[in-house]
Amino acid sequence: MLCPWRTANLGLLLILTVFLVTECTYSEAEGAARPNNSLILQDSKENLALASSSSCMDGTQITQNNSAFPTEVNTSWPILMGENAVLCCPPIALKYLIIITWEIILRGQPFCKKAYKKETNETKETNCTDERITWVSRPDQNPALQIRPVVITHDGYYRCIMGTPDGNFHRGYHLQVLVTPEVTLFQSRNGAVVCKAVAGKPAAQISWIPEGDCVTEQEYLGNGTVTVKSTCHWEGHDVSTVTCRVSHLTGNKSLDIELLPVAGAKKSAKLYIPYIILPIIILIIVGFILLLKISGCRKYKWNKTEATPVVEEDEMQPYASYTVKNNPLYDTTNKVKVISGITK
Prior knowledge:
By secondary structure, the chain is an alpha+beta fold. Helix content is 36%, strand content 31%. The protein has five helices and 16 strands. Strand 3 (99-106) and strand 4 form a beta hairpin. It is elongated and about 125 Å long.
């Protein structure tokens, strides 16, 4: 005869044994029914190697860990215009794929879709007209997408959808195309200094050393770029050299300029002096010339009035004098005639 406490222990042991057998059986059955996630995670190293060889934009690798496998990943990717881009899909083992789809949403363009169906080994495109956006290679070998080269119109959203028996896995890219602005610095005629960052994307930031009295304007161009213009004065400050600093996602740039010796209010006053004095000088010169002309006319008239009577009183005198003084032959002839008369 067994003791009561031994009977209770045996019953408890029997219940525990039945629970463990049931749990093991259920786990094995579940593992056999749903093998995809674990196999996808284990075999994802195959696609990671392909992604690495394709130089994906961020090199992000999803590996097996204690957390659940992510079904969607979104990345913001700024890229410089003119470079090449490779957009990768989630690192899912290709042998578990059913369909691969790239969805491309670009500003001002129709919705584009590139798809590959494994069962029929066919690719299909819908509203995709940009020839610079292509598969890296055959989709059944590498589902990544490439853009060669990147231009402003490629700014938009790209998403890869990997269809598997266990569901869909997504990876998206917010592609932001960057354009380096052209920076210029010059001094205008009125003494102001102008710094311009032309056709940048996004808009550049302009600052000054030292700080002055500045006005900043932005001009939005049709292709998505922005021109930023900053105009500054340094009135009342003893400043000889200023620096314009342009900050942009593509890189920063600084330009220096040496100001004219006199800047600010004094310089502006000197600029206006010629506009005031020059007309006065011109009026003085013109007045002096007119005065000389008036004085000359009056003197000429007075001289003419005084000389007229003299000419009338002695009108024949110059001719008479000439006859007497300048006709020696005539005088000689007369003398000969007189002598001849006397001889006879």
